[in-house]
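Ex. 9. Protein: Gamma-glutamyl peptidase 1.
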Amino acid sequence: MVEQKKYALFLATLDSEFVKKTYGGYHNVFVETFGDEGEHWDSFRVVEGEFPEEKDLEKYDGFVISGSSHDSFENDPWILKLCDIVKKLDEMKKKVLGICFGHQIIARVRGGTVGRARKGPELKLADITIVKDAITPGSYFGNEIPDSIAIIKLHQDEVLVLPETAKVLAYSDKYEVEMYTIEDHFFCLQGHPEYNRDILFEIVDRVLRLGYITQEIADTAKATLEKRGADRKLLEKICKNFLKGRVPAN
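Predicted structure tokens for Gamma-glutamyl peptidase 1:
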């Protein structure tokens, strides 16, 4: 009998009412995107101080760190605890997929610099340019390496300086680091492969109501998804191949 694969999701965000009502929470959104039948997924609400015991880290085959409305460069107790856990996962060479906030936390832990985005925040569907020379055909990207990928973006911070050992896999006109990898066990994206149109639109409406963005920014964000969508299937395939070690990362 094949041993059941186990994965842990570190949720650095709370469930919105919309996500709870529509999907039953972000746990389900992530598992639907990155999970496969027969796997076991545990969620830890790290933003509320919920973490696995250190002795239990070994039992997981991989980890996902979600996005967050918190700044990755702050020193809140839970953020520092998350950094400590990531250091341990690094030592163990466990596979970790970092998304948005998670992408920045991994850079911070490995000695990079994170901070406010130099060219301002982004809230839209955006194209990121793939650094094809940095990707070996047959890696978790597969044999067909695209020139660019459309991904939903929602962030106001960025990786300003990459850790020395990191390799940039994608950039955009606004941000130098959209995707990077460290050795074979860290794979990080600034965008959100798990977001769909409905999730983004609801967030846009909510932050507009709260006065965080203008109507013009809200309209622009929605307009980017009018005629096309994110390359979700491709992003899902790349992330799953990495996380499951289906194809060796070169």
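Check your answer against this statement. The chain has a mean pLDDT of 95.
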